[in-house]
Amino acid sequence: MYRKPQKLLAEFIGTFALIFFGAGSICADQFLRAGGQAGVGLLGIALAHGLAIGILVTSLGHISGGHFNPAVTIGFWVTRKLSTFDTLAYWVAQLAGAVAAAYLLRRLPFDVWAAVQLGTPDLTRGITRTNGMIFEGIMTFFLVFVVFATAVDPRGAFNKIAGFAIGLTLTMSVLFGGPFTGAALNPARAFGPALAANHWTNHGVYWIGPLAGGVAAGWLYDTLFLTKE
């Protein structure tokens, strides 16, 4: 039996919130537009993602580290801050939270859920898969870099502004990358809605890009900036 199930529950809850409010804001935007009303807009969608991750990192970071993202977790694994078993356990909890949130969104009365694929990220016209992986990889690099700088580095500001900084980084990325790739920066963010909506187009982009970015950011910060005891 896993010794610390509260960590996995925290990862489940945090990832659930990110998908429910993040992908849900996309569904709400399309629902309003279909009814002839002003939608939430890109800024609203970006804020929904950023506020969700910022609030949950602040609330649950002291329990599980506040990953809520396999790309963050793999950054901890590659720097040996998390064992292989714990890494896989975190991934299972994160993916389960994402799936639960996406299926709950599917049950809500969004008449246009099929059209927007429950907020499943996808590439816009003209963006190749290679470009998509580059976009997702770079944006995730900065997200994980900020996680290490604020939440991992003992000289950082975890108890003060880590959640704020991480949330703003995600908001910034969605504002920039949303029109191109959907700015998932998180395999769980893509997987949950894709499973619930059965929409797998370009799905590999949202695993390869973010995981590569997470590995690069974790390794770089740990190697060059983190003070070794």
Write the layout of secondary structure elements.
Blueprint: H1 5-34, H2 41-64, H3 70-78, H4 84-107, H5 113-116, H6 129-152, H7 162-181, H8 187-197, H9 205-224
Helix pairs in contact: 1-2, 1-4, 1-8, 2-7, 3-4, 3-9, 4-8, 6-7, 6-9
Find the CATH superfamily: Glycerol uptake facilitator protein
Major beta sheet summary:
none
Strand content: under 5%
Please name the CATH topology: Glycerol uptake facilitator protein
Which CATH class?
Mainly Alpha
Could you give the distance between the termini? 32 Å
Please identify the structural class as seen in this structure.
Answer: mainly alpha
Instruction: Count up the domains.
Output: 1
Helix content: over 70%
What's the helix count? 9
Low-confidence stretches: none
**Which quaternary structure do these chains form?**
single chain
CATH architecture: Up-down Bundle
Radius of gyration: 17 Å
Shape: globular
Average pLDDT number: 91
Q: Give me the strand/helix succession.
A: HHHHHHHHH
The number of distinct β-strands equals 0
Give the tags.
single chain; 229 residues; mainly alpha; Glycerol uptake facilitator protein; 9 helices; globular
